[in-house]
Design a protein that fits this description.
Layout (H helix, E strand, L loop, with lengths): L3 H14 L4 H11 L12 H9 L3 H11 L4 H12 L4 H7 L4 H13 L3 E4 L6 H4 L7 H4 L6 E4 L2 H10 L3 H5 L4 H30 L5 E8 L4 E8 L4 E7 L7 H13 L6 E6 L5 H4 L6 E5 L25
Parallel strand pairs: 5-6, 6-7
Antiparallel strand pairs: 1-2, 3-4, 4-5
Length: 316
């Protein structure tokens, strides 16, 4: 369903900093979202990461450690969730945890408000084929829920900072900044996907949304699948890349729908850099296209006084 906490943070970031455009808003929000800091978005984001985060590492690290009760197991799981595929079981394995102690850590992080679960909507093959002889792979398949970070900055911290702690402590910032430059688009993609779902749900606000979020199973992943009470199905794909989206992406998404036996009421594509003319010509009630500037709609019905929970009380 609509992520109201993320929306509040997104609005608050905009009205505190007034970036020049929505691409800048999304890019910088993916790093600093949740901090409630005043950010000079005219400066390169890498420069801001160095001056605001890396050069204040010890102070910020103490604050983050306080959030997780200075617990190494909590840190390991958050790192695994940040850099992995967000699936709970695979994160447990990477963090060296089992279902028992991993579940306890997961519950703690939820109670602290640092993460939230995204429940799988996949049905196990046994339920789909109760009387059939399942293949070994099918019978052993485990449905795994995923995790979303409540604050973009916390995910940034465990995605880029924690894996580079040794270099940062030695004041060697080159490695972490190189990592960020190389992975910025792939990192920002998840926040963009979350915001895209929020934008779609905003446009469907007069409908009763029954279910919304990403869809994944053993073979197929779809960025957004939203179902409404009147039987409508909306399927979306989000691309945070430096090139325009063409008709090929539409065909890929339609192919996924066919495999899932879905007949979408509308296909919705979100693109950082827009769409090919061929794709624009196909825009209709069956195909909606959203680029960065369309996210301005999320700033409506808000104000400069918009308040949201701040991770830390001060800016460094």
């Amino acid at each position: 369903m609509a992520n109201t906490k993320l929306l509040d943070q997104f609005r608050s970031f905009y009205f505190k900093n007034y970036p020049d455009d929505m691409e800048t808003q999304i890019s910088y929000f993916a790093v600093f979202g949740g901090l409630e800091w005043e950010i000079d978005t005219t400066k390169p984001v890498s420069q801001l990461i160095q001056t605001l985060i890396l050069e204040n590492f010890e102070t910020l690290d103490a604050k983050v450690q306080e959030l997780i009760m200075h617990n190494e197991t909590n840190r390991r799981l958050l790192k695994a969730l940040a850099i992995g595929d967000r699936r709970i079981f695979s994160a447990f394995n990477k963090a060296g945890l089992n279902n028992g102690n991993g579940g306890a850590v997961l519950n703690f992080l939820q109670e602290k408000g640092l993460i939230q679960l995204e429940y799988s909507r996949e049905e196990h093959p046994r339920k789909l084929k109760p009387k059939a002889q399942l293949k070994r792979e099918e019978s052993r398949h485990r449905i795994s829920h995923k995790v979303l970070f409540t604050y973009p900055f916390i995910r940034f911290w465990y995605y880029f900072i924690v894996p580079n702690i040794k270099n940062i402590q030695e004041k060697n910032y080159e490695k972490v900044l190189q990592d960020f430059e190389q992975k910025q688009n792939s990192y920002t993609s998840l926040v963009y996907e979350e915001l895209s779902e929020v934008l779609l749900n905003y446009h469907l606000r007069d409908s009763h949304i029954l279910s919304s979020g990403s869809y994944w199973d053993a073979k197929i992943e779809i960025d957004i699948l939203t179902l409404t009470e009147n039987g409508n199905t909306y399927v979306g794909e989000c691309k945070w890349t430096n090139h325009i989206i063409n008709k090929k992406e539409l065909h890929k998404l339609k192919d996924k729908c066919r495999k899932l036996e879905l007949e979408p009421t509308q296909i919705v594509l979100f693109s950082k850099r827009g769409f090919s003319k061929e794709l624009q010509n196909l825009s209709s009630s069956k195909l909606a296209l959203y680029s960065c500037e369309d996210f301005c709609a999320l700033l409506k019905k808000s104000s400069r006084e918009n308040k949201c929970q701040n991770l830390f009380n001060e800016q460094f």
